[in-house]
Each structure stands twice: as structure tokens, then as C-alpha cells.
């Protein structure tokens, strides 16, 4: 069974004991800032490892409860798999508790537990009253059927119970997609002395490994994952659901900020216009008006924009879903299905939230026709559903596409006939844009390889595809290589793949010395010195010898007799012709010595090389010509 990774969040009103509960569960104080210690409130997100075994790893985010730090709260909760709602027994549900509940609902968090904290401050009878009050307040929320646990972080009452419940709940829960493209919304950026820029966040989807090339979006900065840490421990890889810190090369702290997104794929969309489906909070204090300024929280980003309605001019009360558009002042990275929160900039309040129908919204006219179009988009056209499934999985057989798109076989087959979709291996579907992207990636890898290994015939195919197989199915990569060969982009010789126009060559810096070495070897004819002496005399370094010998042998410029001696290719060929012309169909060692006038130290390796090349076959004490 593959190990699964989850991040849980502590949410609730300020001073209800979230940080204390996190410390009781993990033995780590997540309030690390001086201001947090002094004011005894959480300002930034706090993180700690909660539990790990062979099957599962669980991390905790302690999100700030104070209304002034709601942005940090949204940034933290956006990436979690389960929420522990902390409600103090001596206070019950408070304003920030309700706001956090709204945010969790809009972000689509479906799993939750309720921790009634500070129970040592009240008697049992009061706890019963608080319990009933909380139960009523949570009716209709994600916590409506959630288990309640009584805890006290100072005396450790209920701590083991809630920990066991968290572990049991997550062991029954599906983890995030680790096979899709890597995406990590950044919630912290800092520098480490001697290491450089580090970003931290929760991996939304996919996985990342040390050395992998990545992009910072929407800025388009190309970086590389120099080092990865999970809870301050080095790790070669990080997976969806994990809290991770990544040391990045080629970028400074000043170039980045919270809200940027670290990705491995070009398939994510950068946009300023979103078609969305939203719901409003139940008790709006102020009207939400057409084109009103809003503050969008999506992932860890916070962006100003305006809300555009197509079937109304204002909202005071609305229980249903509203289809509309968000027009932003800055670009963000997002995709269909991403959840978000909407807040009013002034006076500050959460007004609603929803999900992205289409990250590439167009300009539409006011009226029912636009709403009808958005309804169709919301359902998703068959082509959009197929494309979304293939972007995520890279390639899928028909039966899996049926599951993922909820389309019937006839509809699927009809749309899969479009040119942008490709059937390969007779059973798997992918899309042409991905094939083109992979072909370009392989082209770049081969080009780089040829520059640094110009004497080699190409890259061993298995080696070429090894690192890519972690992100793409091997069957798809094999198809792309064959596709490139068919289209004259690549060529293959035995197990080696190269660019079609590539011809192996000696690096320019060593070409003249190699030429001089070959001239000297040819001049010495059949009575050569040790091959190493020729390399040394020409000033060719030992590190280059192996590749150069293999290259010269491939070009038939060098024929090695054994580990010590070699002939120039022309000299060897002339010797073979001379021996053949002066012997019959067969000959003995003595006959060859008479023809070529060679001592035994050359003669025996020469004859063995004739056998190895298939010119002759040894039969007892004689050799028979085969060619």
C-alpha cells in the first residue's frame, strides 16, 4: 500500500485554545514569533508533525483566529484535509467561530471534528449546556454530524482520544492526487543563511523531487528544487497533502511572495477573469452590488477585483448558487474546480465563496442567455470533462475515462474522435498537446546530452525516460519516442536514441590532439606501442580515454586488439586484406606470422580480434576464413 499524506487544521475563535491543543497533540509550540509570545495570539500559520506510521503521515496547521489575521487563516485552511473546530467550553460559539465555519463550507472541507476545549474551567452541568448550544449552532454545517471530543490541553484530558479519532478518520479517507501535475501555493517565503531562498506550503496535488525543474507562477520564473524538507527533516520527495519547505535555486526572496504558486506543468492557467459559481453567507450585513470591489482569496493568494453579475444588480439575501464573473486586478494561477473565498475590503467581512467554473472567462452580455451559457459551462461540456481528466492523469483507458467524466461510452467515443485526442497502444487515450510538450522536453534533453557527450551515439532509451517515468506513464513516453522517430525528430540505433540530425563527433577542444594521436598510431603500422602511451603523448586526459576509444572504434578509426594494444583502422584493414590474399581458405598461426612478420605478443591478439569480428573461425589449431 502506498503511504498517504494528510494535513489537518485547527480552526476557531481567538483564545479558544487551538495553539495549546496543537502543542498537547504534538509537543510543539507553533507560536514562534516574538509578537505571538507577547500578545498570546497566533499571527502567522503554525505547523507541526502529528503522527506517522508505515501507512500514513499527518501534519497540523494552527490557523490564526483573530479577525485581523483572516487572510492567514484562509491561506492555511485552503490546503487541509480535515478540520478540528476548537470551541472553548467557557465561551461557546463566537463570531470568529461562525466566520471560520463559513470559510470551511465555501472551501469545500468535508471532514471535521469538534474539540470542546478548556473543560477544566467549567463544571459538568455547564459542559452539557455548552454542548447543546454548540450542536445547535453547527446544524447545517460540515460539523453537523461530526463527533464531539471534550479536551483540556493543560491536564491532557481527552488528548489521546482526539488523536486516535483524527488518525482513524484519515485512515478511512482518500488522499489528494499524487499523480497529477505538482502544485504548491506558497504561504511563506524566507531565506536560510548559506542556503538561499526557501518557500513553504501544503502540496495541493502531485509530487516534487530534489533537482526537479519548476516554475513560479504567475511570474513565470524558472527555478529548481535544490533541497526539500518535511517538518525540518530532509526528504528527496514531497507528496500531495504534505507540508513542505523547498529550497529554490535561481531566485531571491524579494522576487516571491505569499500567493505565488510553485508548479511543474504548463497546463495550469494564468488568468484575470474567472467564471464562477458562488454562494453568499446567510446573514449579509451589507448589500453586495454589481461591480462592487471584492477581495478574492484563492489558495494562498489575495487579489483585489470586482464581481460582475449577469442576472441581477445587487444581493441582500440569496440561499442558492449564483453564476457570475470575477474580474481581477492581478493575474492568478488556477484551474476548474478550485475553491475560493470572497471578502468585502471595507468594511471587512466574508461575503461568500464558491468554485471556479472556467478560469478563462470571456466578456458576456447581461441577460438570461449568458446565465444559460454559464449553466452549460458549469455542467462542463464533454470535451472539457475529457480534457480535464486527461490533464490530470496524462493518459487513461476508455473504462477509466467513463468513471472520471461521468459520460456514457457513446458520447465519449464520439468526442475522442476529435484530432486533439490520441489513442495509442490500442487502448489508452491522451491529448496531442501533451504529446507535443513531451516531444519538446525529450528534444531538449537530447540536445543537452549531445552537447556534453558529443562522442556518444545517443542516450540509452531507458536512461532517457527514467526520470520522466515518475510523472508520466512509461507506455506514453515510449509512444512519444516512436512518434518522434516516425516524424524524423529522433532516430534510434540499437538501444540509443538521438536527435535525427546528430552525428557523433570529438569535442572541438580535443579534435586536433586526437587527429595527431591517430596519425602517430597509423605511422607505427602493426608494431605499435601501448595504446595508453599514444593518449599520453597527445596530451589527452585519462578521463576522456574511455569515451574516445569507444567513439573511434564506432567510427572504425581504431581497432583494439586487447586492453593494451590497438591498431589504426586502416592499418588493421590492410593487414586483414594482406593475410587473406596470401593464405588459402584456412591457415595456422605460423602462416600468419610469416605473412605479417609479427611477434606472438601482437599475433595472438590480432587473430583473436579476427575471430571476434567474424572474419575467421578457429577450428582446432587452424583458422578458417568466413567472410
Q: Quickly count the helices.
A: 19
CATH H level, superfamily name of the largest domain: P-loop containing nucleotide triphosphate hydrolases
Shape: elongated
**Class based on secondary structure composition and strand pairing:** alpha+beta
The CATH architecture name of the largest domain reads: 3-Layer(aba) Sandwich
Would you mind describing this structure in some detail?
By secondary structure, this protein is of the alpha+beta class. The chain folds into five domains: 4-171, Rossmann fold (3-Layer(aba) Sandwich); 183-263, Elongation Factor Tu (Ef-tu), domain 3; 272-379, Beta Barrel (Elongation Factor Tu (Ef-tu), domain 3), CATH 2.40.30; 381-505, Arc Repressor Mutant, subunit A; 508-625, Winged helix-like DNA-binding domain superfamily/Winged helix DNA-binding domain (Arc Repressor Mutant, subunit A). It contains 19 helices and 34 strands. The protein has a six-stranded mixed sheet, sandwiched between helices. A six-stranded antiparallel β-barrel has the order 7-8-14-11-10-15. A hairpin with a 2-residue loop joins strand 18 (293-298) and strand 19. Helix 11 packs across helix 13 (474-486) and helix 14 crosses helix 15 (531-538). This is Selenocysteine-specific elongation factor.
List keywords for this structure.
GTPase activity; 627 residues; Elongation Factor Tu (Ef-tu), domain 3; elongated; 6-stranded mixed β-sheet; 5 domains; translation elongation factor activity; Rossmann fold; 6-stranded antiparallel beta barrel; Selenocysteine-specific elongation factor; alpha+beta
